[in-house]
Known about the structure:
0% strand
Amino acid sequence: MISQPPAPVGGDQARxxxxxxxxxxxxxxxxxxxxxxxxxxxxxxxxSLLGHVPGSHTGGSGGWTALVVLLVLLVLVAAAVWWRAGxxxxxxxxxxxxxxxxxxxxxxxxxxxxxxxxxGEWPQAIRERLRAIxxxxxxxxxxxxxxxxxxxxxxxxxxxxxxxxxxxxTVGVRVFDDVWYGGRGGDPDGYRRLTELDQxxxxxxxxPLASGRIR
Length: 215
């Protein structure tokens, strides 16, 4: 039986066979690794920077001058990054008061919270719900009315007056802080937690003072 000669290989098939052959590891053993290529890129970038500094090609003190200039630039960049981060932290540390001296009621804030929640505006809804909690505690004489009271102060003062809810107040204020100052996006779950806290506090009674009187 006479074997048939192999069918001729077309151009596209030849290119595909060649591509597969060149992908074999034996042809890539001497190529630089990814880490080597990254290091080389960084080295080329540094050399490029040095090449644009006057005196960097003259050797001697010129080369040291270029290095010092580069180090100064790096320090300035690091200082700018540090200053920006510190500024963000300082701004986040400034806590505005929950309530001002406007004559609002707890129900006003609850209604506002529901409007924001219906519109999907969760940070505003969470803030209004916490304002409702603060105003309700003032209306019930559990807390003294005080414009400018911050969320953290609310948690501390209300927690002392209602020790059975101190942990819940801390968690609720943390939800508010994370959203309003920490840059986290609010969500329905966070709003639900504040709403449930508002409802539970509505039936809470303050702890008796040492003298036996109730605030």
